[in-house]
Amino acid sequence: MNSIPIEYYLILSAFMFTVGVTGVLIRRNAIVIFMCVELMLNSANLTMVAFSSYLGQSAGQIFVFFVMTVAAAEAAVGLAIIIAIFRNKLTVNIDEINIFKW
Amino acid sequence: MNIWEIIIITVIKIGAILTIMLLTVSYLVYFERRISAWIQSRLGPNRVGWEGILQPFADVFKLLLKEDISPVAANKFIHGLAPFIAVFVAFSTYAVIPIGPDVTIFGYSIQLVVADVNIGVLYVLALTSLGVYGLTFAGWSSGSKYSLLGGIRSSAQMISYEVSMGFSVGGVLLMAGSLSPIAIVEAQYGWMWNAIVQPIGFITFTVAAFAETNRLPFDLPEAEPELVGGYHTEYSSMKFAGFFLAEYANMIIAAGMIVTLYLGGWQVPYIDKLGLGEIVTALMQVGSFFVKMGAILFFFIWVRWSIPRFRYDQLMNLGWKVMFPLSLINIVWVAALIMIFNL
Amino acid sequence: MTIYDIIFYLFAAITVLSAFLVVTAKNIVHSAFYLLFTFFGVAGLYVLLGADFIAIVQIMVYVGGILILLLFGVMLTNKITSVEIKSGTIHVLPAVIGLGLFAAFVLSTMMTTKWKSNPAELPFTTVYDLGYILINEYVLIFELLGILLLIALIGAASIARKDKE
Lengths: 102, 343, 165
Known about the structure:
The complex is a heterotrimer of chains A (102), B (343) and C (165). Chain A has 102 residues and is mainly alpha-helical. Helix content of chain A is 76%, strand content 0%. Chain B has one domain (70-341).
């Protein structure tokens, strides 16, 4: 299990994070942006679990727990907002949701 | 034991479990038809073979020869993938349910479970969550409004009852102190089956199991008068057979979980006092597991043909406002018992 | 090359490829599919790192909860009759250049730092340790998370329901 140096896991999570940020910047659909935010959260989780394993403590996994819970709460509220916006404007394209009043 | 022996024994176990599962699923369909006929005072299928015992083979043969139609507006890839997900999830879950105690055959000490996962109960709950995907994809990819409504209703129902299922399992974990199914079974020695110690949890878990497997009285998503068949309206031939198979396999999984968590698994109370040999004891315990599972499956079939189905809002009401608080009360009850009796 | 290395490369390849395809797929449902594979890849990596409980919780929460929410969102925000959902991209070149620089910076930092490594053997099942420290040392955050989930539940239900006029 420890024949893989920790840098490999960190490189993997850095790549995932970069891909997630790219997705948030270049995609126009609000739900796809949401998916890329989940990618970023997963990359942070992977870093924490990797460190927890390589330092021999389980406290890192507690933070992963918290991040997952916060991600779930955020997904619920975020999707409720997106659906509420869709009901009014009939689009989820973020270029068209650009005025404060309807 | 070296690695090759372990691999061969595991492959034999997988083969045995698959055979038992497939036979049980096909004969469950046959028994459902016979028992429903008995409840409704008519004869069931009794032509094919002696008393209709070869009926499942006739059904499979018929389904294989039917034409496979899929609608024009359907998303072909996901339409074909949905039954695979349903069947895969249903059959993978059976890998962690223990059938009997450790036996020693030909000098090898083997456990009668395919995979002794130390978080086995969570594995089953996670695969139940995955099972929702089969229904959601089926309902959405058929391209028709009835299927979409049925798929969404079905997945909302399954998600709601997963919550009370999880909390009922929490009560069982408090008593057993471990997430492994083998440890949970071994913690129910003597008369201390969990169904007797935590009856509220038993009831909530059974009701949640009915809702998870989309059986009456919770089968509105696939009810014929309401939704023309719900999420599997647009499926035919082997893909429909896949969903059918998956539903009965889910029933068997639910029965297996109820027996493992609440009815003592393969335990026969006080059997070691009789002092029979090891092989005879093991055989009796494996037999008791299957007898208990058969009893629970008969209960499933019995309820289906006796009770009318719930309306959708009554169903969600029951799940969130009745079952969920009851399972929380169950946890408080179990915690109080542990504190008072120092278990 | 032990079996662990092969499994690690397999899961890493699944994760990386799926993450890339999430961002570049045109069809939204395909994006959700590739996100599913990414979550599974990450769960496999957690098991390799010895975090069994976190792996199962990842599958239960992310795959069995959040991704279903996302799929419901996709299904409810497009027309039912047309099943093809396409979505475009904007400003690809500046984003790629900027993020390429960022990634190069982060990777160079990671590879040149001497990370402290103390690989003590993690226990066979991490459930006991996690339960213990969750209730004893991190109990404040535990309670706050409960309140956060309650707020999210009430908030989501009240935002998404139809207004009764």
